[in-house]
Write a structure and sequence with these properties.
Elements (H helix, E strand, L loop, with lengths): L1 H23 L2 E2 L7 H10 L5 E7 L2 E6 L4 E4 L5 E5 L12 H10 L5 E7 L2 E6 L4 E5 L4 E5 L1
Antiparallel strand pairs: 1-2, 2-3, 3-4, 4-5, 5-6, 6-7, 7-8, 8-9
């Protein structure tokens, strides 16, 4: 009997937790609700590119553009992930050490995605390779 009650309680808890998570996923918000840092970043690097949608999820933001680019921001408005498959990530966003490595080793390709975390950077080039760099922008490995 205790097992049945425990399973029912666990089931109710998981159902509630999942429904709250689903409700929080991708809530569409106005552009004006982005942190100032994110708005400034978009104005500087994506000026003139139409914003299609801005979503918020657990104090993180995602901006989708008409050219199929996408930028994710943390709760403070700092970029965490940039995807620009059609035109490449703007060169001035990419740390110079990473840009130099990519230019030297993949001269015919462009960087189409860059993600940063506290541990470092992950970069994807147009040829499909995913490159990992540490937090000091030193090359670590090719991730396949």
């Amino acid at each position: 009997m205790k097992r049945i009650i425990t399973l029912l309680a666990l089931s109710a808890f998981l159902t509630t937790a999942l429904s709250l998570r689903v409700k929080a996923d991708g809530r569409v918000i106005p552009f004006s609700n982005l942190p100032q840092e994110a708005k400034s970043f978009i104005k500087e690097f994506f000026d003139g590119v139409k914003v299609l949608q801005v979503t918020s999820e657990w104090n993180e933001y995602e901006v989708i553009f008409a050219d199929h680019s996408k930028v994710e921001f943390d709760k403070k408005g700092n970029w965490t992930d940039i995807k620009c498959s059609s035109r490449g990530v703007p060169a001035s966003i990419i740390p110079s050490k990473i840009a130099s490595y990519a230019e030297r080793n993949f001269p015919d390709e462009i960087i189409i995605e860059i993600e940063r975390s506290r541990w470092g950077y992950e970069v994807k080039v147009s040829g499909g390779f995913e490159l990992e760099f540490d937090k000091n922008c030193n090359f670590v490995r090719i991730d396949d």
